[in-house]
Amino acid sequence: xxxxxxxxxxxxxxxxxxxxxxxxxxxxxxxxxxxxxxxxxxxxxxxxxxxxxxxxxxxxxxxxxxxxxxxxxxxxxxxxxxxxxxxxxxxxxxxxxxxxxxxxxxxxxxxxxxxxxxxxxxxxxxxxxxxxxxxxxxxxxxxxxxxxxxxxxxxx
Length: 156
Fold this sequence. Notes:
By secondary structure, the protein is an alpha+beta fold.
């Protein structure tokens, strides 16, 4: 009886030590951007798809236009509780060369075994936002043949 109790206690300790949450991050097609994803203010990874199309400069456009595929990344976080995911986006205007910075954040309440779906999308004409979406919406995004699956991120 004592051995069984100890085994159960060890299993409970090991499972609580390896408690993980999964966050699926999606980004729509973006142009001329650098996208840095951060967790609690610390850089985690870049969130940009593969280069899909390049348009060379013309008489009115001084800089090349780089268009990136929509992208998806699965992330595994070890931390539980409230986590602040944020983006820092640097957009270069291909006509003027001006650089504009966009930022947004979303707070997630992570618990062992929880799954969250976050989408980086437009907010109006000239801004971006992170918003939580449903599993059904996430599955619809994954069916998009243009969606690029990026390497999985596992928190060290």
